[in-house]
Design brief:
It contains 17 helices and eleven strands. The protein is an alpha/beta fold and 486 residues long. Strand 5 and strand 6 (277-281) form a beta hairpin. Helix 2 crosses helix 6 (103-114).
Length: 486
């Protein structure tokens, strides 16, 4: 069976399940469990003959030989048993549940996966199939999965600017389904990269370090990485199921690529032994933080600074409020500009994220020694927002839309840059002279204000109005929450 036929087969079965009320997320979850077991089974065969650590009687063969209610009962027992195991196995099956209530459809899904030899498929095929399902799940707004999915074109552009090198570590403290890791992996294995054996092993086992607090999202991330040949079937998971913000990082890394979760207020999810969850408002008390605040993005920014080695580099997606907010926000901004070399800000357009109402930027900065010097000499700003119109359906963000930014960024030597209409430089002194040291800077004229005959299409205009209103509502909610907390 060729690649396109297999992809179509997997998709068609997803549509069949949707008629029974099984959404993309639930389908993807069950596919993850079964695919992992089938791949593990294939690794026990010739020529691999590997011990996959899967307990006897709870492997793929035990599922394949059953149908109907006996299959459903054994599937439930298998999920429960494997969730108690250690390592990657326990991470994939942690708190696993069966969401397919029709035993006949579960049997068909087992048969469909059993019919293929998944190891023989190339990495691109397996990875593209799973990434496609992740994107569909993100597009399903009711699932809420969009908050864990960063536009892949944006990730590609960020990686193309940072240019991670082999044998160096890359972290994402809120890694979602692993988009930044895959972007970096694709860069490191691009045509002509010519990695040697040691570099390939380091890339598979030691390059990536992540955190993802939501169990199902972490599960999908681990499977996504595994299908792209990152991590080992019987190894330790590369993504921890923990809140990265609670403690100081145990090890420093060379690069951080991240899009921390949207929403300003931090909360802690407490899980008891029965798997029941409760959420509690949280202010992190960290000795290595410049300021104590309940603002999640400001905490992630401080945490990312603390994760970097002395010569580490970061590219982080942050909402507008981080650029202009007073109080703790202003103090953290000033500290960031003093202690790190904040050299580039990419102002992103609206309409590119699955979570509505998001106005965001990519902030690029390098770690520097704590020597009392001011390390930011000035910041280059690229405005991709003014007079740019995107939607998730009719005008999606493509890598071509970011190509001019990459050219202006000049990754080969960012110290030799040229100003353009959209790319401007502001000195440290100019930034410090602004109210609250605000980095919320724009200079281009909005053409829609006086060119009424040249407005974007109605669907684009409609989505932009929704995004602006959503952003305003989010700001009002934050103000209200702050007043209630006083």
């Amino acid at each position: 069976m060729n690649t396109s036929t297999l992809v179509q087969k997997v998709w068609n079965f997803c549509h069949t399940l949707r008629d029974d009320g099984v959404g993309y997320g639930d389908y993807l979850e069950q596919l993850t469990y079964l695919l992992f077991l089938k791949l593990a089974h294939e690794y026990t065969q010739e020529p691999y003959n590997r011990d996959t650590q899967i307990p006897p009687g709870f492997d793929w063969a035990s599922l394949r030989g059953k149908t109907g209610e006996p299959l459903e009962a054994h599937y439930l027992a298998t999920l429960h048993k494997l969730g108690q195991e250690s390592g990657m196995l326990g991470a994939i099956f942690f708190k696993a549940q069966n969401k397919i209530q029709d035993p006949a459809k579960l049997s068909r899904l087992v048969q469909m996966i059993d019919a293929e030899n998944w190891i023989s498929l190339d990495t691109d095929t397996k990875g593209d199939l799973y990434e496609g399902l992740l994107q569909k799940n993100a597009e399903d707004t009711k699932s809420g999965a969009g908050q864990y999915f960063t536009p892949r074109a944006l990730i590609e552009a960020m990686v193309a600017c940072v240019r991670p090198e082999p044998m160096k570590t890359i972290a994402d403290p809120a890694c979602g389904t692993g988009g930044f890791f895959l972007g970096a992996y694709n860069w490191l294995t691009r045509p002509g990269a010519q990695l040697n054996k040691a570099q390939k092993e380091f890339l598979r086992d030691q390059t990536f370090h992540g955190n993802e607090i939501v169990p199902n999202t972490r599960r999908m991330c681990l499977m996504n990485l595994f299908l792209h040949s990152i991590g080992e079937l019987d190894g330790e998971p590369l993504v921890a199921r923990s809140d990265a913000l609670i403690t100081e990082p145990s090890a420093k890394v060379d690069y951080v690529l991240a899009n921390p979760p949207f929403g300003k207020k931090s909360s802690m999810t407490i899980t008891n032994e029965e798997g029941e969850e409760d959420r509690d408002a949280l202010t992190y008390e960290r000795q290595d933080f410049w300021e104590t605040t309940s603002n999640k993005q400001l905490n992630f920014l401080q945490h990312i600074v603390s994760m970097l080695k002395l010569d580490g580099k970061a590219a982080v997606v942050l909402p507008d409020n981080v650029l202009f907010e007073g109080g703790a926000g202003e103090k953290i901004r000033r500290k960031l500009l003093e202690n790190c070399d904040v050299h580039t800000v990419l102002r992103l357009p609206t309409g590119i994220f699955y979570a509505q109402g998001v106005k965001a930027n990519v902030v690029f900065f390098d770690a520097k020694p704590k020597d009392g010097q001011i390390h930011t000499k000035g910041v280059w700003f690229y405005d991709l927002r003014t007079n740019k119109h995107f939607t998730l359906k009719t005008r999606t963000l493509k890598l071509d839309d970011l190509q001019d930014f990459i050219t202006c960024y000049n990754p080969e030597n960012r110290h030799e840059r040229v100003a353009t209409e959209r790319f401007k430089f502001f000195t440290y002194e100019e930034l410090m002279a602004r109210d609250k040291a605000s980095l919320d800077i724009f200079w281009l004229k909005d053409d829609s204000l006086d060119k009424l005959d040249d407005l974007p299409p109605p669907d684009v205009l409609q989505q932009e109005i929704i995004d602006h209103l959503e952003a305003a509502l989010a700001s009002f909610r934050d103000v209200a929450a702050g007043l209630q907390g006083k």
